[in-house]
């Protein structure tokens, strides 16, 4: 079995949880042992996040790099007035400000971060620092220093603003960290912010509407594998 599997990841699952689960299902379908079955992902999603994961199966694992640098679209919810040690709701939350930015200020901030910007990846990320994953160092209480790098924010479209939550859709280049974008927006609004929800809806030309819910995978696997 060779091809691409589009999965709609549920919140609470790690990307590796999804890979292991799919590997077992593919092995079962092929009558093999999981250790003899090739399945890989082409870009992680945080456990908190939901949405599109592109998995490669069989010989397609050799082509995983084709899908790792694609542009992406996210549905984002940010909470204003508080910060998080991890940049999302899984970290330690600290109240910062009760100030309520005006709608015009929110729109202006979103517009300012559209285009090519310099972005510092979050400490709790998979970036490597001297050969070690940044999140492992951060969890161990060690200082993590990551350098800013250029990313592209093609568009940010405001969906709603009901204080303290802002909802928007962002189309971004590969390598963009939405948690960092949200924190930067919070600083721009002089109110702080963290990412309270995230859903990835598109990776390159692959759309969430064609993905299979991870909970339905045993039934749908034979017909949802994309072969190209």
Describe this structure in words.
The protein is α+β, with helices and mostly antiparallel strands. It folds into two domains: 3-68 and 204-226, 2-Layer Sandwich (Pseudouridine synthase); 72-203, Pseudouridine synthase, CATH 3.30.2350. The chain is built from five helices and 15 strands. The chain has helices spanning 15-30, 103-112, 134-139, 178-188, 217-224, and strands at residues 3-9, 39-41, 50-57, 72-80, 82-84, 93-95, 115-119, 128-129, 132-133, 149-162, 165-172, 193-203, 206-207, 212-213, 225-226. Strands 1, 2, 3, 4, 7, 10, 11, 12, 13, 14 and 15 form an eleven-stranded mixed sheet that branches. A two-stranded antiparallel ribbon has the order 5-6. Strand 12 (193-203) and strand 13 (206-207) form a beta hairpin. The radius of gyration is 19 Å and the shape is elongated. The two termini are 12 Å apart. The mean pLDDT is 87.
Q: Looking at CATH, which topology of the largest domain would you report? A: Pseudouridine synthase
Q: How many structurally independent domains?
A: 2
Mean pLDDT metric: 87
The top level CATH class name of the largest domain: Alpha Beta
**CATH superfamily membership of the largest domain:** Pseudouridine synthase
What is the level-2 CATH architecture name of the largest domain?
2-Layer Sandwich
Number of H- or I-type helical stretches: 5
Rg (C-alpha, Å): 19 Å
Structural class: alpha+beta
Largest sheet: 11 strands, mixed
Query: Tell me, what's the shape?
Result: elongated
Order of helical and strand elements: EHEEEEEHEEEHEEHEEEHE
State the helical fraction.
10-25%
Low-confidence stretches: none
Count the beta strands.
15
Straight-line distance between termini: 12 Å
Strand content: 35-45%
């Amino acid at each position: 079995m060779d091809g691409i599997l589009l999965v709609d990841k549920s919140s609470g699952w790690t990307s590796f949880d999804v890979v292991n689960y799919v590997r077992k299902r593919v092995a079962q379908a092929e009558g093999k042992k999981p250790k003899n079955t090739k399945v890989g992902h082409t870009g992680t999603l945080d456990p908190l996040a939901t949405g599109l994961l592109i998995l490669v199966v069989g010989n397609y694992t050799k082509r995983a790099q084709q899908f790792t640098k694609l542009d992406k679209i996210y549905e984002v919810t940010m909470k204003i007035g508080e910060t998080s040690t991890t940049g999302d709701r899984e970290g330690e939350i600290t109240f910062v400000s009760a100030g309520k930015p005006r709608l015009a200020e929110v729109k202006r901030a979103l517009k300012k971060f559209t285009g090519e910007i310099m972005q510092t990846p979050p400490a709790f990320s998979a970036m490597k620092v001297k050969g070690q994953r940044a999140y492992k160092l951060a969890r161990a209480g060690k200082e993590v220093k990551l350098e800013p790098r250029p990313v592209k924010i093609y568009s940010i479209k405001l969906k709603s603003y009901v204080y303290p939550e802002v909802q928007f859709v962002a189309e971004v280049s590969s390598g963009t960290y939405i948690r960092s974008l949200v924190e930067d927006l919070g600083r721009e609004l002089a109110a702080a912010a963290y990412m309270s929800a995230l859903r990835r809806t598109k990776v390159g030309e692959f759309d969430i509407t064609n993905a299979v819910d991870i909970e339905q995978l045993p039934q749908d696997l034979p017909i949802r594998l994309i072969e190209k």
